[in-house]
User: Fold this.
Amino acid sequence: MLYQTSQLTDRPIGAIRRKMRSLATAGLILGIVTGLSACVQVTAPDKPIVINLNINIKQEVVYRLDGDAKDLINKEADIF
Amino acid sequence: MFEYMKKNKALAAIGALVLTAVVAVPVMAQRDPAYEAARSSGVIGEKPDGYLGYVSSPSPAIKALVEDINIKRKAAYTRKAQETNSTVEQFAFTSGCNLIMRTVSGEKYQTPSGTWNTRDSSDPVRDSRCP
Assistant:
């Protein structure tokens, strides 16, 4: 035999390694692209949930959260 | 001896000042100048839902700035909503009530009907559920 082959196939080891390597690279690129597109999806909605507001937000809840909201606005003044 | 104590007091005073500065730094985090300028020029304004909105079509720079701030706001609302057992929308809305109240003269805010008003010395037009 001129070159070593796998026990499962008679393709040369080098060819199998190259194939695996290209598969790994493709997987890596796919992973990065998926990761990036997942990041892009985290944008804040342009027109958020106006319809939901009227159903889910009751005045008593707003009153309960008011102190915490003021607290947050004071503490993270750079984004408000 | 007296001289020594005097010097010690001065050192303590300086120490206290430094400590105050260190503690006060996170509280003193201020708005980015570009953000401040966009607010006061009326290109962007506060919406009732707790996020920033565009009053007129924004430049790419302002759009990026607003998107960045809105993402950070949403993250903060999400965190506080978890702490207070409320929904992100509820906490954001409550913050929106406060943020519209805190706009200063000349800045824009959105009324519940969706129109953009310029804040003046009178109270802003807000949702009836706002405290």
The two ends of chain B are 59 Å apart (CA to CA). The CA atoms of residues 23 and 107 of chain B lie 31 Å apart. Chain B has four helices and four strands.
